[in-house]
DNA sequence: TTTAAATGTTAGTGATCACTAACAGCGAGA
DNA sequence: TCTCGCTGTTAGTGATCACTAACATTTAAA
């Protein structure tokens, strides 16, 4: 774990909590364990956060990312299907990977579903933006007319499946690299949807 | 929960354990809770299974499905891409849905990864069969030449993502039905890969 | 009816959990 | 130097956990 010495105790505890909870689940790790991993006493944990749940909430507040997708759709789209899908796909995997541990934590404990919204609200937003993107591309006759919403969710589920597979079974299932997958899947969309 | 009265105590306990563990995780449910849900005393649980972990292992042994995909590839393939992908996709979702609770249980507890192999060994098998299917279709000139393995994993991840999304966030994320998704995604493969 | 196996009841084990009280050591700013 | 806020240590709370011992009760086959 090795939470660096340059951090203050609060941050050491937050990072240790994220690591351990992502590995063993919220219920699977004790406050004593977290404090030990952070290199502080258990009392410091309670003095700083009051309760185990507060600690997790503080961690989610502090170390979770969102809103970048919006920027990409607003500024980086060039209205070329291959280019745009690659950009969106790469951004998606980057964001999901940064939120990896958070996703694992809320995944493992049903009672934490209140936090799930925070760490997983973007999918809905992404689906809307992607649907609008496909619709616009169709209006510009750059894509054949299809159910834009279904295409959007297909693209998302494809990448979500890839991410979750790597997340849960750790690389081992296939010899296909993420790079190959991205190229192949985008080529699939391009061949199928361009006139 | 309402585990029927016609079952013997062993099966009542197995079903209650599966339900509760899928909902609250292995650690999230107590033996007392499981016994109560099964309508028997806690002692009956320990007399039948010895330990909580034995109970889960017995449940996985008894109520998990696999091997059907093999039969489909051996007997039901007609070498028409749309027909075959629809069949495979539907079978995939049926199998995953039947194993739904098992998947949730092992998902939520890292220490149960020993059981994960049992309930998730088919993906690797499926990927092989699907890759061989695409290769054969290419040799028959029914598909354009592409990276068959990448196509196979793309098809699987697409459906895995759809399944996991429904499993974890319960229908709510999109208005696209499973039926629409299947049609749209298979049409995607057909348009992209047929000459 | 007798008998034996399965089950229920009760009360308890020791371990672990989240969390607290009380006090002592410490370093930095005054 | 004094003080104050942060920290560590120790010892503990009461709750819950998986699991057990001992005995009473039910059930069904013989």
UniProtKB/TrEMBL annotation, chains A, B:
UniProt key word Transcription: no
Plastid found in the keyword field: no
Q: Which PROSITE patterns match?
A: HTH_TETR_2
Q: Give start and end of each HTH tetR-type domain.
A: 7-67
Alphabetic keyword roster: DNA-binding
Known DNA-binding region: 30-49
Q: Provide any one GO MF term from the record.
A: transcription cis-regulatory region binding
Q: Which Pfam families match?
A: TetR_N (PF00440)
What InterPro entries does this protein map onto? Answer: Homeodomain-like_sf, HTH-type_TetR-like_transc_reg, HTH_TetR
Which PANTHER family does UniProt cross-reference here?
Answer: HTH-TYPE TRANSCRIPTIONAL REGULATOR PKSA, HTH-TYPE TRANSCRIPTIONAL REGULATOR RUTR
The protein, known as: TetR/AcrR family transcriptional regulator
Natural source organism: Paenibacillus sedimenti
């Amino acid at each position: 774990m090795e939470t660096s010495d340059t951090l203050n105790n609060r941050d050491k505890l937050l990072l240790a909590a994220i690591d351990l909870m992502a590995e063993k689940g919220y219920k699977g790790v004790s406050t004593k364990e977290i404090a030990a991993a952070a290199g502080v006493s258990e009392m410091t944990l309670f003095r700083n956060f009051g309760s185990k749940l507060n600690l997790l909430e503080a961690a989610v507040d502090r170390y979770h990312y969102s809103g970048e997708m919006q920027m990409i759709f607003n500024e980086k789209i060039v209205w070329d299907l291959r280019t745009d899908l690659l950009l969106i796909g790469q951004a998606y995997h980057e964001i999901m990977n940064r939120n990896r541990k958070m996703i694992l934590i809320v995944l493992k404990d049903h009672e934490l579903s209140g936090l799930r919204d925070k760490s997983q609200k973007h999918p809905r937003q992404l689906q809307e933006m992607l649907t609008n993107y496909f619709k616009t591309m169709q209006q510009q006759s750059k894509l054949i007319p299809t159910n834009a919403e279904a295409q959007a969710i297909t693209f998302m589920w494809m990448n979500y499946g890839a991410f979750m597979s790597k997340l849960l079974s750790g690389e081992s299932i296939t010899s296909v690299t993420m790079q190959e997958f991205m190229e192949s899947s985008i080529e699939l969309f391009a061949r199928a949807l361009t006139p």
